[in-house]
Amino acid sequence: MNKVLENLNNKQIEAVEATEGRVRVVAGAGSGKTRVLAHRYAYLVNDLGIDPGNILCMTFTNKAAREMKVRISKLVHRAHVNDLVCTIHGFCVKFLRRDIHRIGYPSNFIITDEEDNKLLAKQVISEFQLDTKNITVKKFLSEVQLYKALNPYIETIILPESDLPQEEFQNDYVKRYIQLQQKNFMLDFNDLIYFTIYIMDRHEEPLNYWQQKLNYIMVDEAQDCSASDWDIINHLKGGYDNLFIVGDPDQCIYEWRGAKPDGFLSFPAETDIILNQNYRSTPNILDVANSIISHNVNRIPKDLFTKTEPSKIAIHYHGPSDDEEGNWIATQIEKLSENGMAYCDFAILYRASHLSRKIEQALLRKHIKYAVWGGIRFFERREIKDILAYFRLIAYKDDLSFKRIINTPSRRFGNVSMTRLQEIATYKNASLYDSLYKNINSGVFNKPSIVDFIRLIEGLTEKSKYIPVSELFDLILTQSGLEEMYRTEADNERLENIAELKQSILEYETANAEDDINLETYLQDIALYTNADYKNDGETVKLMTIHQSKGLEFPVVFVCGLSEGIFPSHRTIRERKKNGEEEERRLMYVAVTRAEKALFLTESEGYNAVTRSDKYPSRFLKEIKDDLLEIKGDLTKEELSQLFEGTQQLIDDIENDVIPTDLHIGDKVAHKFFGFGEIIEESSSTSYKVRFEKGERFIQSNFLTLWDGKKTLEELFPKRYNNSNGIGL
Predict the structure, then answer these.
(1) pTM beyond 0.90
(2) Which pLDDT belongs to residue 537?
(3) Helix (H) or strand (E) holding 102
(4) Which end of the chain is more exposed for a tag (fewer CB within 10 A), N or C?
(5) Catalytic residues
């Protein structure tokens, strides 16, 4: 047999040899899609003699591109691996380095990352003296991207011949931001896509160049392509029409950022191949995965199978509390590691990062080493350390805590002031706080913000002697300005972590109600979980969100926090209805298919702040066939069935949480940003597909106003049009 085809199954060989025309490969989890892509590349080069410089292989992450190059290099001569194995943004950079001069940019343009964009946004916010209570950096950048997506900004702002009046930039902060980008020849990641499409649409020579150059195009993870990505792909395939796409609609988990499975599902393939033999998981695990994902409608049906031997049945653990849930997970890891498994064999996955707290505490109690993959341990997160630093300063007046919070939030206590204060503290052999307290009336320190800080700490120190730690927490959050600062940043994850810390303090007080606890005893006990000497070296249990786990695999996987409202997220379902529910189910499918040998699904009783009700098991557990799970915990099948009645009630509540509307298909409507349009389709019980002048959009009904054909937008939305500073307000 041809060496390139060795060790491939029949379906994989079929995919490798399908070189001509439009080919769609539906590659189930663990079915060897990366292997197929690498071997197909080698087949084109080694067997058909295609010059590697005429093959484009696009992936979605730089890590995946590097892995692809390594695999290909083992199959072809090392000189035959080129830089056209890249991400879609990487291809856009190559395209623009050659042809961006057509819109007046130099070939050495600057590519900006998220931090660069934030700095530029802060510059414009400062220039326009915008109120950061109303417009955060995150919201500002969202408005910029929305404007770019809906307006011809390249023609009106970027092109050398654009003639937008200067006062437009002086009155509109979004346009000013784009002007500053243009002035410095800066492109963000979305600009790379938009600029490429613009040139392809309007300049025949560069498009012809690439169409003729690229004999074969391969796209990995094609289910994650956005409409703009597909636009570029469809432009490029126009030369030879040899387009090979690989993906799995059941693993499309980035729809919230524009990656919809529809482009993959509706792809006009001439050849369809389904890879459904799984090389990763046991039959027991695959049966659970198939049982869950079969409830989705928007998919290509396929049942994963494997030839590996069956293993232990998957476990569903129900705990009386999230404390017990964390303890049970840690105990299972402890037992399995005693039987010869390494810590690195275990992964604990969760829907949201704040769910890691109970797990981390349980692992620490058992001295199990762990690492938060792609993130930060709960008690080492910035917002948690900020609040704990306030606690410590109140209790101990130590220098480390002082340095952390004197400018958190900002009190304009700069380097000059800090240097002077350190000199005084050294001379007097006193702490920084005490030195500031005793010299608050001297010129360099006598600022209203610093005087207020001293009053705050002194007042909280006195109150800490007689109020519970949880009440002190509330006072710190509100009186220090921390809560306002975090809300201004508009970072939901930080706010969720703060709420989780408050919950942990309340639980601590309840658990120690009979003891004489105070702030000092709390800080002593919590030090166990914030011990900076704890190292992540050596083999560790991996904790991560499910989004971060995509593409990874582990012998043993725990999926925790499987409570209705948390996973699936009711916020996602409320915002995107059936589409949101299906994406949450795809996320569950991804979580389950990370497991190779053993799968544990855990949840617990208690109060769910998201649903404002008692916790009930996730609908995803309810969807798994009875014989596929073994129930652990103090729970019978009959009792579980009763709990699922509560689950169903929560599902019914969210499905009935609709906004009455009198809108119908064919109605003329107005929208404050998109203008006038016509309803052409009912998307869900609360949203409609509307055809506007600039294209079709899915809009929630409460954002639409019936239009009589007479009133202007200014009359309908006076607040939006009386505001000269920007868009969509």
Answers:
(1) no
(2) 43
(3) none
(4) N
(5) 33-34, 220-221, 251, 594
